């Protein structure tokens, strides 16, 4: 963070070609960093994304006394201190990542009381932390919300039966780490079964915690007594949202592109919807991720003529179209013949950002804060656009710029750097022309 603003100059209208590999998961990286606080031994994590969201979380952890050391380009070593120094918490970094609340679950096992600042992250409307607060309450944790902080305290932790207030990913991860070291059986009902939640479950199993129902909406955690003090090694798996980005890039540029290491279980419905729209693709091979649990596949996407679906496209907690993949469908709908209703029921601001595609030639009509009508096909054109304050819509605008003939400028790409690594270089490696500039 040098204070300068980074922009992307994109020369569009070029075909993508070759093979691109899916990187390790952003959300998995952040979740594993938080979960590593449970282990008093040395935790080695492979497949950690070098992105702004991870850098901010590392700054937070280091400020409270955690040793975080990069031992390879995507591998880190984490060692927790004997005592967490919460008074030194880096508030500036904490405020830049909504994920900071996820350290609450692990920290309750070391501290009777502490405070965390209200976090920010993407601006997607009202995003409450009620699921975190209510769930922790069932484990004996009290959270007082002030104007600027969450004051977290407890007298005695207890196992419990938690009914999730909403099926949130980060809330579920927080409750998993909170219940991991509470002796006895804790059940989380209406749990998220999304990829990053499964990742945390697999990691906790590595620590010695027995978990039933991984990948379902009822998870049972058999908490263990006492601190975990092990030297462990864990591999984070790949990011299905990034795989979907590459699939969308191939679609919008009408390119033949092979995407490797795609977490197929978390893309099957997306691919089936795309198949019904007319997308031609092939599954080339299937295999396991390095974590030995996640199923991966190599996917070849072929240039295709798409037709709009008769039904609306909306997201759902897994198994459903991933909430983070929905903006990509807004862009894909703009490439298809006909009209598509995109319903983003989760966030009351995010659908609005899809109207920015109109600057690039799209025909996107805002119905209300949650719904847009997208009319296609689109003849993309170049333009200058400021990144909206949300990760996935920012990437969607970048992909549209790849399709439009001429030179486009995407300004202030910090939001993209929060979740994606070396975007300009990686797109250039498959035939795009993206130049990073600074103001």
What does this structure look like?
The chain has 439 residues and is α+β, with helices and mostly antiparallel strands. The protein has two domains: 6-23 and 238-438, UDP-n-acetylglucosamine1-carboxyvinyl-transferase, Chain; 26-235, UDP-n-acetylglucosamine1-carboxyvinyl-transferase, Chain. The protein has helices spanning 26-35, 52-63, 91-94, 104-107, 130-137, 169-180, 195-207, 240-252, 268-277, 326-335, 350-353, 391-403, 414-419, 423-428; strands at residues 6-12, 19-21, 43-46, 67-72, 75-79, 113-117, 141-145, 149-154, 161-163, 184-189, 210-212, 218-223, 232-235, 257-263, 280-288, 295-302, 313-314, 338-343, 363-368, 371-376, 384-386, 406-411, 433-438. The strands form six sheets. A four-stranded mixed sheet has the order 21-22-1-23. It has a four-stranded mixed sheet with strand order 2-14-16-15, covered by helices on one side. Strand 21, helix 12 and strand 22 (406-411) form a beta-alpha-beta unit. Helix 8 (240-252) runs parallel beside helix 10 (326-335) and helix 10 (326-335) packs parallel to helix 12 (391-403). This is UDP-N-acetylglucosamine 1-carboxyvinyltransferase. GO terms for molecular function: UDP-N-acetylglucosamine 1-carboxyvinyltransferase activity. Its EC number is 2.5.1.7.
């Amino acid at each position: 963070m040098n204070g300068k603003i980074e922009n992307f100059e994109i020369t569009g209208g070029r075909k993508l070609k070759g093979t691109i590999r899916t990187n390790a998961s952003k959300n998995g990286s952040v979740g594993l960093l938080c979960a590593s606080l449970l282990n008093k031994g040395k935790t080695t994590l492979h497949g950690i994304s070098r992105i702004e969201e991870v850098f901010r979380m590392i700054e937070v952890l280091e400020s409270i006394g955690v040793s975080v050391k990069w031992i390879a380009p995507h591998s880190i070593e984490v060692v927790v201190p004997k005592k967490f120094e919460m008074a030194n918490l880096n508030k500036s970094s904490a405020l830049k990542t909504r994920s900071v609340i996820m350290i609450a679950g692990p920290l309750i096992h070391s501290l009777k009381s502490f405070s965390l600042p209200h976090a920010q992250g993407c601006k997607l409307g009202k995003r409450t932390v009620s699921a975190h607060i209510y769930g922790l309450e069932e484990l004996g944790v009290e959270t007082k919300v002030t104007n600027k902080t969450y004051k977290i305290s407890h007298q005695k932790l207890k196992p419990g039966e938690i009914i999730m207030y909403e099926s949130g990913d980060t809330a579920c991860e927080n409750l998993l780490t909170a219940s991991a070291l509470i002796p006895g059986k804790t059940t989380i009902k209406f749990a998220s079964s999304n990829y990053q939640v499964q990742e945390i479950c697999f990691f906790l199993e590595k620590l010695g915690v027995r978990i039933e129902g991984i990948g379902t909406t009822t998870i049972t955690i058999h908490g263990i007594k006492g601190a975990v003090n092990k030297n462990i090694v864990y591999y984070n798996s790949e990011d299905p949202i990034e795989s979907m980005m590459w699939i969308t890039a191939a679609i919008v540029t009408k390119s033949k592109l092979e995407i490797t290491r795609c977490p197929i279980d978390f893309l099957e419905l997306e691919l089936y919807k795309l198949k019904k729209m007319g997308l031609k693709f092939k599954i080339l091979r299937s295999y396991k991720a390095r974590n030995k649990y996640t199923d991966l596949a190599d996917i070849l996407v072929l240039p295709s003529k798409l037709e709009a679906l008769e039904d609306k496209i909306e997201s759902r907690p897994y198994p459903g179209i991933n909430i983070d993949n929905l903006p990509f469908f807004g862009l894909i709908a703009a490439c298809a013949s006909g009209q598509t209703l995109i319903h983003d029921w989760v966030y009351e601001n995010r659908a609005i950002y899809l109207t920015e595609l109109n600057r690039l030639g799209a025909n996107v009509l805002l119905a209300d804060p949650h719904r847009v009508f997208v009319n296609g096909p689109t003849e993309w054109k170049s333009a200058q656009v400021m990144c909206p304050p949300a990760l996935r819509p920012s990437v969607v605008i970048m992909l549209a710029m790849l399709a439009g003939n001429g030179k486009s400028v995407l300004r202030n790409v910090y939001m993209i750097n929060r979740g994606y690594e070396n975007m300009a270089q990686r797109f250039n490696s498959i035939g795009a022309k993206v130049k990073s500039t600074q103001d």
